[in-house]
Amino acid sequence: MGSALLEGLANTHEFELIGKNPINPRVSDLSDKLSFTLVHSIAELIKLSPNFVILTTPASITMDIVSELTDLDTNSIIISAVAGHSYEEYHQALPNHQIVRCIPNIPVSVNQGTTSLFIPENISDSSREEILDLLNKLGETILVKEEQLSIVGTIGGCSPAFVDVFLDALADSGVLEGLQRKLANKLAASMVNGAATLALKSGKEPSLLKDQVCSPGGTTIKGVVSLEKNGFRNAVIEAVKAANHN
């Protein structure tokens, strides 16, 4: 997720970016590609006094990293993009710092992401605006309660992979029926993009949009019935449940 966030922010050409990572050839290559400053320790990072620190570390080591941020300027805003640790844990470790939690998804890399965001009450109005301005450059930001982050993060964060499975299957069906793979992939991705854009812009329930396409006795409703017979809807629900209760 760290590389996806860096790519999205780099696309805006509005920020001086810093990445903190142990010496790693892949990260060094990414630094060259995106032109961000690469540091190898928290001490180096703190000296640079960043406006924001975005945590994307594995949950198992996140609190160890947080404990090293005690000397970070309290004007720096910490944004945790890590699942598995509550705001209260961060606040106890860094009681004088401004900390928020968010769950972004991979499409932030192309500034079309969906980021669920929890902002605690002690965050100032000016900091709130700065945080939203930053994250909105990566796509859409949805404000939620902290207890909603898990399920919202699952739907927003895991579902791109579920959609990719659907896209792959849809493209396979096109290849089966005679389309070239490249054309089938493009057609499937374009269709999903268009359907999602229509859902967002129209504000209509997905079921109503589905009904608009399904003519009585037509080919689309027959396909929908086949999806239902084969457990498509239940498979999606079970996938979300499995991801959310791991």
Automatic annotation (TrEMBL):
Its EC number is 1.5.1.2. GO terms for biological process: L-proline biosynthetic process. Keywords: Amino-acid biosynthesis, Cytoplasm, NADP, Oxidoreductase, Proline biosynthesis. Its main location: cytoplasm. Pfam families: P5CR_dimer (PF14748). It catalyses: L-proline + NAD(+) = (S)-1-pyrroline-5-carboxylate + NADH + 2 H(+); L-proline + NADP(+) = (S)-1-pyrroline-5-carboxylate + NADPH + 2 H(+). PROSITE patterns: P5CR. One of its GO terms (cellular component) is cytoplasm. Pathway: Amino-acid biosynthesis; L-proline biosynthesis; L-proline from L-glutamate 5-semialdehyde: step 1/1. GO terms for molecular function: pyrroline-5-carboxylate reductase activity. InterPro entries: 6-PGluconate_DH-like_C_sf, NAD(P)-bd_dom_sf, P5CR-like_CS, P5CR_dimer, Pyrroline-COOH_reductase. Residues 146-244 form the Pyrroline-5-carboxylate reductase dimerisation domain. It is found in: Cytoplasm. Catalyzes the reduction of 1-pyrroline-5-carboxylate (PCA) to L-proline. Belongs to the pyrroline-5-carboxylate reductase family. This is Pyrroline-5-carboxylate reductase. The lineage of its organism: Bacteria, Bacillati, Bacillota, Bacilli, Lactobacillales.
